[in-house]
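Example 3.2
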Amino acid sequence: MRKIENLSREVLTNLRQVLDLIEFLDRYRSGMIADPQLAEELLGKCEKFMKPRHPPLSRKELIQMIQKTRRTLLEESSVNKLRNIYRLGRVLSTFGIFATVLPLLVFMLFPPTEYYDLILGIIILGIVMINVGYPLMIYVRRRYHKILESVYAREHVNERIKKYINYLTSFVADLLEKKRISGEELTMTLLNPDYDHIKIVGKKGRFFVAIPCYE
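Structure, written as tokens:
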């Protein structure tokens, strides 16, 4: 076993922040109502590390786009209605699962009693709740994504965020090509931020096994 050598803690910490920003932007592109303050923090952490590069969107443009789409979605009355319907569907589905599984376990573990009809009735009620709640959640997701598509289309969110994510991933690829980080270091950054307790075992070519070690 050998410990990873020559790790630049600063480079790896900054790399982790770039990967966090990629994840954040990908979730935003997928429909998450993004928090502009969190975006501001992530961008601020990455900017110093990534200078003198020129991103496809300036920091101000990206924050303004996130703020605008967030405000539009939160102020949209249909989105608020959908949010309430989704909560109802989730509650019905959750209670339906418990109302189906728990009585079924009781029925299987204990012999039939005078409460047989009651247990059967609760199971049927649970199945009905699942069949109502789950389709409600699916309906809300479909409606929300239609609204999201129209909002995102106005701001060209998908195209602009894709370009920004490609810009960030090409930066990580450049780090690998210029050997500022190794494949092992990138993998460790993706897997575990606790670099002091990672060891590499049985490295062969591009393949290796990493294990935590607290010796």
